[in-house]
Structures are given as C-alpha cells and as structure tokens.
Design brief:
46% helix, single chain, 46 residues, globular, 0% strand, mainly alpha
Length: 46
C-alpha cells in the first residue's frame, strides 16, 4: 500500500493474530486518511 506521497505502508498480517487498534490508527494516519474516511471506505468496499 502506498500513501499519497508515494511512501510504502507496511501492514503486518500474521495468521491467527488480530491487528491492535493502535496499529490500525498508525496505518490510517500513514495512509493520509482521516478516521471518518477510513470507516467510509471500509463500509463501502466490504
């Protein structure tokens, strides 16, 4: 995943483990999204 500045964002995926809320907030911020935009995309794309 890349943010608007072209910087790669790493999203860790480990079988059987959930991503903690703090890490999700960091990923959202690094992606250049607001919390509201994240949830909008989550609802519309899932």
């Amino acid at each position: 995943m890349m943010n608007p500045q072209g910087i790669r964002i790493v999203i860790p995926v480990h079988p059987g483990k959930k991503i903690k809320p703090g890490l999700i907030r960091i990923i959202i911020t690094e992606a250049g999204l607001t919390r509201e935009k994240y949830f909008e995309l989550l609802v519309n794309d899932c």
